[in-house]
Automatic annotation (TrEMBL):
SUPFAM superfamilies hit by this protein: P-loop containing nucleoside triphosphate hydrolases
Gene3D superfamilies for this protein: P-loop containing nucleotide triphosphate hydrolases
InterPro entries recorded: AAA+_ATPase, ABC_transporter-like_ATP-bd, ABC_transporter_ATP-bind, P-loop_NTPase
Keywords of the record: ATP-binding, Nucleotide-binding, Transport
PROSITE patterns named in the record: ABC_TRANSPORTER_2
SMART domains the record matches: AAA
Protein name: ABC transporter ATP-binding protein
Organism for this UniProt entry: candidate division TA06 bacterium
Residue ranges constituting the ABC transporter domain according to the UniProt record: 19-250
Pfam families according to UniProt: ABC_tran
Record-level Gene Ontology MF annotations: ATP binding; ATP hydrolysis activity
Amino acid sequence: MLRESLSQGSSDIGKCIVIRNVGMVYHSRESSLQALEDIFVEVDEGEFVSFVGPTGCGKTTLLKIIGGILEPTNGVVRIGDKSADEARRKRMFGFIFEDPILLPWRTAIDNVRLPLEIMNIRKNESDKICQELLRLVGLDGFGKRQPHELSRGMQQRVAIVRALSFNPSILLMDEPFANLDEITKHKLYMDFLALWRKQRKTVIFVTHEIREAIFLSDKVAVLSHQPGTIKKVVKIELPRPRKLEMIESVKFIEYIKRVRSIL
């Protein structure tokens, strides 16, 4: 089996995420489905890594395993010196999904505040955190709006800063920019990357869009058809901060061709 690492060297010391020999089998009464097989992954702290692959290759399953939501059938997952389940219980993960999943009866700022309420953070302290985060994504002045009063792009911004409100170490993002028009999507790319540069979280990003993965990431891990294995990791050597004009550059197009050739 191909064992493709996301970082150089073989030592686990100092790695933010280490996955060894992970496989996932879903069982039903009638049959079994091998979703993932022999996954080896290492991610350094502060890296932005995307997983790209065909529909049904196990990208979301892998994200859930990293986040301690699913337990793999075999293999080991370590988040620093903790298991994935321990890391989840210690609130080391912020989850961002395709659907913003905002509570419709709460205002934007109250949606952002929700994790802090669960953690019993004082309101005056949580107000400062939430207001600053909303400001950083261009929603200063929209805190009192309810979700139905916000565009889809604005709703997703609220979901992003809600995931950041309690200062997790790692962001797990499952196609968060899907179902957005191109203009809104590109604006969100730039807003999120600006926020990422400030906070430098480790990001695991799942997408089926090759251009998106290349534009956002330090590295792109290409998964095979089911059962999903990592076929190759492509290091993206585009300068940061990223600019939208890069999407039309010769080097960017070469990366697209390279990833497509691996799929």
